[in-house]
């Protein structure tokens, strides 16, 4: 692209904040404005997880923000799986995991962006017909419900696949030392949760079940406080008396959702380009959406730096990002499906459940009887990757 580029970024989530930082680092003369509908410091969600690989990428791309993110993150080195009344198993894992408060992450990125000269217009909601004047580039980083994408839906070709299960994203004051999976059997079916710390004061809990279990337990009734009371009882073993914390909707009901996996036929149209959740979503059970949003930001900034022609740069960005996305998208689909088919796995021995859970991303698992898969995995573990099973 030309030397000085005027960019309008819609949405002040991780994707756009990071994109603006990388653009300014390359050329401080770029004129970048971010329009965010929420006030500064307010966001949805609790904490997000990420892994060593992202850490290394962030350090390479912008050491200042990477350092601040690192200082505000907490780390765990093991996984605990708790299957009610049957077993609690702790597994030391090779790769460390990290958690950071989503609010803190956005605060760090917004501060860094502003320090580099990015303008952030908080509480400025954009509608689909907004006129961005003489902007060279409009970056739609306005999340899964992107208004810009929907306004040009005919061109972008968005497609949603709605997950069968229902989930809720909660916080708690219980600090989980390890990454915890807890499965609880009720008379209405299984309900499970995974939790991880994201600060010294709070952890995230994502709770999921089938719609039948949800209705059977009465989670579809009453206010959020009623849902939380039921869930606190069900997960009392892992919560140790700590409360679950929600964020009720305007009418006081709990924020239960079906996850929607989004894909788009194309990611750019004229001078508009989609990034992060506006372009694609991956099921939360692989904890990768934020990392992928940051990766989009980095690939887009690189493409704009390397290619002077806008259309060619956006095509190169789309091509590279889509190819990076293929493997996590497949893993996310398999992982979501694993939980949707939980009865297929959960009645096996605890060690088998833990192994199958750890490999829920596997392409093979849905097609191989679970007992046989487990046996193959054990052999593969001994001889090192036989048949493509195991790690
Ligand atoms: C339950 C759950 C758990 C998750 N856990 C993890 C995890 O552990 N690790 C991980 O990496 N990812 C996780 N994710 C995914 C992650 O939250 C998203 O992938 C990530 O936030 C995407 O970033 P983004 O910048 O594309 O969009 P968003 O974070 O959604 O940001 C979009 C921004 O745009 C603003 N906006 C929207 N519309 C407008 C408008 N019209 N005008 C102005 N502003 C607008 C919004 O207010 C928002 O600030 C999880 C998601 C869910 C649902």
Automatic annotation (TrEMBL):
Domain FAD-binding: from-to ranges: 113-322
Tree of life domain: Bacteria
Pfam families named among the record's database cross-references: FAD_binding_3
SUPFAM superfamilies: FAD/NAD(P)-binding domain
Presence of the UniProt keyword Oxidoreductase in the record: yes
One of the record's GO molecular function terms: monooxygenase activity
InterPro entries in UniProt: FAD-bd, FAD/NAD-bd_sf, PheA/TfdB_FAD_monoxygenase
Keyword list, A-Z: Monooxygenase, NAD, Oxidoreductase
NAD found in the keyword field: yes
Signal peptide: none
Protein name listed in UniProt: FAD-binding monooxygenase
Species assigned in the record: Nonomuraea longispora
Organism lineage: Bacteria, Bacillati, Actinomycetota, Actinomycetes, Streptosporangiales
């Amino acid at each position: 692209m030309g030397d000085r580029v005027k960019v309008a970024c819609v949405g002040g989530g991780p994707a756009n904040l990071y994109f603006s930082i990388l653009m300014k680092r390359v050329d401080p003369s770029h004129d970048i404005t971010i329009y965010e509908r929420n006030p500064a410091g307010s966001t949805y969600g609790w904490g997000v997880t990420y892994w060593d690989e992202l850490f290394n990428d962030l350090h390479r791309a912008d050491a200042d923000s990477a350092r601040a993110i690192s200082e505000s993150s907490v780390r765990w080195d093991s996984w605990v799986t708790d299957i009610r009344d049957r077993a609690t198993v702790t597994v030391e894992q090779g790769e460390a995991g990290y958690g950071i408060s989503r609010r803190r992450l956005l605060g760090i990125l917004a501060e860094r962006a502003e320090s580099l000269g990015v303008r952030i217009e908080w509480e400025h909601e954009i509608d689909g017909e907004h006129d961005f004047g003489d902007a060279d580039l409009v970056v739609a980083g306005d999340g899964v419900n992107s208004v810009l994408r929907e306004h040009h839906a005919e061109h972008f070709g968005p497609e949603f696949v709605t997950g069968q299960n229902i989930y809720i994203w909660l916080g708690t004051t219980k600090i989980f030392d390890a990454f915890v999976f807890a499965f609880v059997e009720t008379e209405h079916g299984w309900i499970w949760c995974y939790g991880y710390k994201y600060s010294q004061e709070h952890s995230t809990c994502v709770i999921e079940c089938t719609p039948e279990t949800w209705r059977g337990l009465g989670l579809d009734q009453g206010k959020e406080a009623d849902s939380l009371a039921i869930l606190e009882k069900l997960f009392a073993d892992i919560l140790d008396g700590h409360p679950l914390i929600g964020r009720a909707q305007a009418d006081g009901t709990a924020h239960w959702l079906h996850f929607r996996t989004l894909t788009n036929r194309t990611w750019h149209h004229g001078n508009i380009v989609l990034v992060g959740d506006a372009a694609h979503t991956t099921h939360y059970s692989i904890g990768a959406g934020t990392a992928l949003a940051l990766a989009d930001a980095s690939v887009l900034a690189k493409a704009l730096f390397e290619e002077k022609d806008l259309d060619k740069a956006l095509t190169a960005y789309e091509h590279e990002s889509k190819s990076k996305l293929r493997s996590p998208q497949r893993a996310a689909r398999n992982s979501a499906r694993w939980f949707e088919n939980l009865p297929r796995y959960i009645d096996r021995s605890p060690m088998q459940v833990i192994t199958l859970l750890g490999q829920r991303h596997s392409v093979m698992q849905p097609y191989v009887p679970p007992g046989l898969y487990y046996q193959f995995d054990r052999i593969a573990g001994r001889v090192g990757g036989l048949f493509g099973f195991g790690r």
